[in-house]
């Protein structure tokens, strides 16, 4: 049912003049799904209150609820004929619905409330539908979706994940939102967050790390108290970009977290020296954006200045981690060797135990031309030795052949004991050059590659071949 519904929605979106790409499709589908989900949740709470003889006040005023404007019903449950459509529907959405919901941010008591999330979402996006008839068709499709069972939520969340994944092919910005789920799951298995610990991602994008961590921690026999802890006091995220923020919230909601603790903010504007114990977390999982571009005033928030955003995020994560806390962070593999990161590598080794480095092959990230590593570290003790594993699926990765969970099985097994193998080895802290702090991935068990020839040798060889070719041509001419 859900797959057919999403296919039908995609067909309507492709016919809408106001939508140009997968990024637009995801954004516009998200706010519509969000309002339908919210109305279903409100109705469920209203029914429960009625059974208990209690009063319940819905979050939204009656005329802004889904069942009032998107899918009004007659008393007998049939659809009303006088539904808004065409220009009337677009006018209502643009001049009444969005402005009303936008105000909820101002009146919310806390950024962690559903009211604040409503206000934040509708402050960051606009309705891009130009045709009220296309919007009406999408509303009717979404109205047929039910969110009231765990099976339905699971199927819908999987479909939403596939939409986020497709965004990676819609442009460079889209690719920032999606980290391959097999890689995320492997990172989580190593870090192994427990109920009672907090999990943080300061560049959460579509919230893939938080959603997968929730799935990892949610067991079938979980108690009501632990479930409440998971829902409200476990997962925390921050995201700078509005579209990623909206998609992250929707992704967490569809995975079962009703009021996600995600905040719309630029993490790097926080001075890391101001981070206090109450701000720290037990587990950090992240894939921060790569690239330069942060303004000089932002760099002033960090003791080690850098134009590379990932290096600033690393400083943030080190200080955001509680003593004894664990982290797994994706970063470009040049972090291990670049001279401008030497001071940061030294700080990491001095303040944390960098116990594992997972070297990822090219094209693990679709559309990205950089090689990456995953750094696994614990806060509170110095690094004595680091175990490396060079992931090699034995095939070329790409859009049609993404990384699979089973291809990380050997890494997960060997990581438990940090054993040597043809793909893994250990480097002692004292073997790292004290000045350069070079920690490049160099597998001692890999066969040595033939040394590259010098430019002079290459030119000399080319000239020799040219002489041979000229001589052969002279011989041929003599035969003619």
From TrEMBL:
Keyword field: Methyltransferase, Restriction system, S-adenosyl-L-methionine, Transferase
Boundaries of every N6 adenine-specific DNA methyltransferase N-terminal domain copy: 12-106
MF terms (GO), sorted A to Z: DNA binding; N-methyltransferase activity; site-specific DNA-methyltransferase (adenine-specific) activity
EC number: 2.1.1.72
Any matching Pfam family: N6_Mtase
BP terms from Gene Ontology: DNA restriction-modification system; methylation
Keyword Cell inner membrane among UniProt keywords: no
Name used for this protein in its record: site-specific DNA-methyltransferase (adenine-specific)
Family from the record: Belongs to the N(4)/N(6)-methyltransferase family.
């Amino acid at each position: 049912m859900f797959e057919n519904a999403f296919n039908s929605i995609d067909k309507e979106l492709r016919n809408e003049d106001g939508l140009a790409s997968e990024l637009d499709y995801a954004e516009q589908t998200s706010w519509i799904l969000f309002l339908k989900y919210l109305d279903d949740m409100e109705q469920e709470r209203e029914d429960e209150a009625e059974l208990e003889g209690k009063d319940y006040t819905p979050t939204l005023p009656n005329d802004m609820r889904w069942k009032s404007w998107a899918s009004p019903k007659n008393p007998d449950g049939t659809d009303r004929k006088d539904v808004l459509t065409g220009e009337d529907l677009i006018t209502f959405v643009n001049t009444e619905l969005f402005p009303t919901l936008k105000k909820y941010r101002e009146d919310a008591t806390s950024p962690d409330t559903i009211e604040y999330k409503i206000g934040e979402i509708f402050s960051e996006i606009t309705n891009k539908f130009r045709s009220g008839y296309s919007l009406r068709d999408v509303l009717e499709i979404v109205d047929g979706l039910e969110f009231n069972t765990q099976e339905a939520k699971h199927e819908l969340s999987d479909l939403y994940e596939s939409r986020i994944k497709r965004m990676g092919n819609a442009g460079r910005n889209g690719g920032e939102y999606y980290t391959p789920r097999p890689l995320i799951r492997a990172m989580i298995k190593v870090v192994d967050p427990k109920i009672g610990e907090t999990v943080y991602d300061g560049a959460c994008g579509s919230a893939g790390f938080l959603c997968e961590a929730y799935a990892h921690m949610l067991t079938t026999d979980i108690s009501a108290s632990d479930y409440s802890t998971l829902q409200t006091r476990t997962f925390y995220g921050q995201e700078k970009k509005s579209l990623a923020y909206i998609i992250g919230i929707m992704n967490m909601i569809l995975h079962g977290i009703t009021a996600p603790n995600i905040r719309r903010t630029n993490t790097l504007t926080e001075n890391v020296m101001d981070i206090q114990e109450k701000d720290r977390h037990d587990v950090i999982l992240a894939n921060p954006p790569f690239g330069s571009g942060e303004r000089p005033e932002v760099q002033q928030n960090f003791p080690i200045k850098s134009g590379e955003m990932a290096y600033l995020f690393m400083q943030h994560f080190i200080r955001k981690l509680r003593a004894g806390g664990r982290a797994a962070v994706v970063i470009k593999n040049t972090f291990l060797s670049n001279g401008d990161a030497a001071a940061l590598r030294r700080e990491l080794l001095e303040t944390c135990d960098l116990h594992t480095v997972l070297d990822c092959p090219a094209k693990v990230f679709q559309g990205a031309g950089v090689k990456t590593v995953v750094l696994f570290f614990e806060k509170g003790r110095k690094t004595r030795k680091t175990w490396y594993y060079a992931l090699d699926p034995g095939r070329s990765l790409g859009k049609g052949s993404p990384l699979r969970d089973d291809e990380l099985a050997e890494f997960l097994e060997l990581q438990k004991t940090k054993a040597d193998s043809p793909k893994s080895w250990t480097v002692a802290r004292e073997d790292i050059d004290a000045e350069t702090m070079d920690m490049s991935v160099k597998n001692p068990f890999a066969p040595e590659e033939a040394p590259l020839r010098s430019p002079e040798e290459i030119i000399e060889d080319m000239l020799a071949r040219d002489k041979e070719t000229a001589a052969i041509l002279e011989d041929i001419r003599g035969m003619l």
